[in-house]
Amino acid sequence: MNYNYRYRLKPTERQRETLDYHRDTCRQLYNHALYRFNQIPEHEGTVKQRVRKIRDELPDLKDWWDALTDVYSKVLQPTVMRIAKNITALGKLKEQGYTVGELRWKSPREFRSFTYNQSGFELDKKGGQTVLSLSKLADIPIEHHRSLPDDATVKEVTLKQEKTGEWFAIFGIEMDTDPPAKPPLEDVGTDEMVGIDVGILKYAHDTDGTAVESLDLSEERDRLEREQRNLSRKEYESNNWENQRRRVAACHQKIKRKRRDFLHKLSNYYAREYELVAVEDLEVKGMLESPRNSRNTASAAWNTFSDMLETKCEREGTYFAEVGPEGTTKECAQCGVETDKPLWVREHSCPACGFKADRDANAAWNILSRGLTKLGVGYSEGTPVETALPADTAVVSAKHVVETGSPCLKEPPKAVSRQG
Ligand SMILES: [Zn+2]
Q1: Is the pLDDT reported for residue 406 higher than 90?
Q2: Domain containing 135: what range?
Q3: How far is the CA of 291 from the centre of ligand 1 (A)?
Q4: Do 202 and 310 fall into the same domain?
């Protein structure tokens, strides 16, 4: 299992300059490698093979490119290999039907990080302060607010400068212990499984009768708008403009952090509370459902949610099923008959069997059924909705989830810590 741990760095002014120098050297190397990549004909191998070829040219490159000798070699190699990663990512987007162009050169503003792979980094204590000691770079004070797990192996450390100007170290670690074993599927009871319908108005509605409202970010968005207006009044690329640009970036960052915190807590809750979790393929759902203007934000957050959920389920030994989102709202969870429902019809009332439920609860039950089918659970007693009829819905604010780490209203929440 692989995880990321993120820490804030507190570089001195001088160290900041060195970090910048190393990052920019990597950027120039990246651009050079991209240029070389485009020179190598396709028939000379797979993308990875061709990029490896460029990586192997590094020693020769150092003969005439002095700046490269200032940077640790296990930093230069992954920089070149990023080309392969990015080209593969572009290919995937293309497969999904997005229009993508060629991989482009990176400007200083677009190239924000570099990675120490395997070696060249160490956590150390110096004068009572924890420092991240980086080969050929510096000993940089680090805010080490939580320790790495005992059985963790650090695979790499990425140094990243956010748009706010702050530097972070992201530790990519691998856990030596296996996650807890999943119970046999047939032992998972109906009260230990949950289907979750994720939406725009309500963030989540599950088969246990819990509905979580969307996170209220209106204050943060107002502030962002104000700061953006201020930015547009400044002279482009002047000092004032640069300062204001950082304030805008800080607003974006704050919104992102708040949203991630909420999603961390919500996904943690589901992964810990249940033995089996089913959700829709939110990437597909995002393209099908979200209104055009909010598509990117909504689907990006949905993707983050399902990624977090999947990772956390894996870590907790919980079954995770992702199912096709088509028709989950139309279909009757009890008898399967489809009825068209415009968005404003909030209740599901089946003309065929008379089953009545909240629109989203009905969808959540369909998601759970599909999840069970996908995992290969035969349901001898019919659909789950017949064995455990939906309870009344408790609507919980996102704020409650953020404050307590759980949408539970009845019992005190279990210790849910923020991880990952
Ligand atoms: Zn029905």
Answers
A1: no
A2: 2-175
A3: 29
A4: yes
